[in-house]
Amino acid sequence: MSLQTDRTLPQLADTLFLEKPPLTYWMSGAAIEVYGDSPAAARVPNLLYAAIVALAIGALAFAMDGGTAAIVAALVAGTAITAFRVQIWLAPDACLLAGCAISLLGAYLGLSAPPGRSKLFGYTLMHVGAAVGFMAKS
């Protein structure tokens, strides 16, 4: 996508490539634009997704059980071999995992919050995570 003039829809050999939703391609194209044309640059967004997963799972554990649980959960989420395998290939699964982690955090925050802005924030976060997951891989 970094070489396309129209970046709204991914193309392969000047033919629309609509196998998956475009968020993964948009993010990789932007990273290639910034860091240059290389496989490593295309995978830079996956580092962001991995960090989001670890932070969201850590925040979820913190909300549920405090600081020690948050550290353990973030370390486990960040070092799990399955998550690592998803993060190293250029596929929509890494972004989907980040969206699901954000959505789970938002669902818990919304469910456990008293009525008001904090409940609205939690459920908004849940819907943002679901939207990210949908745009990554539906």
In short:
This protein has helices at residues 23-35, 39-42, 44-65, 67-79, 81-88, 93-112, 117-136, and strands spanning 11-12, 15-16.
Keywords:
138 residues, mainly alpha, 2 strands
Shape category: globular
Q: Figure out the total of helices.
A: 7
Indicate the low-confidence ranges by residue numbers.
none
**Overall pLDDT level:** 89
Order of strands, widest sheet: 1-2
User: Radius of gyration, Cα only, in angstroms?
Assistant: 17 Å
Order of helices and strands: EEHHHHHHH
The secondary-structure class comes to: mainly alpha
Q: Tell me about the largest β-sheet.
A: 2 strands, antiparallel
Total beta-strand segments? 2
Name the beta content range. Answer: under 5%
Can you give the helix content as a percent range? over 70%
For the termini, the CA-CA separation is: 20 Å
How would you characterize this protein structure?
The protein is mainly α. The chain has a domain at 42-136. It is 72% helix and 3% strand. It contains 7 helices and 2 strands, in the order E-E-H-H-H-H-H-H-H. It has helices spanning 23-35, 39-42, 44-65, 67-79, 81-88, 93-112, 117-136, and strands at residues 11-12, 15-16. It has a two-stranded antiparallel sheet with strand order 1-2. A hairpin with a 2-residue loop joins strand 1 (11-12) and strand 2 (15-16). The radius of gyration is 17 Å and the shape is globular. The two termini are 20 Å apart. The model has no long low-confidence stretch (mean pLDDT 89).
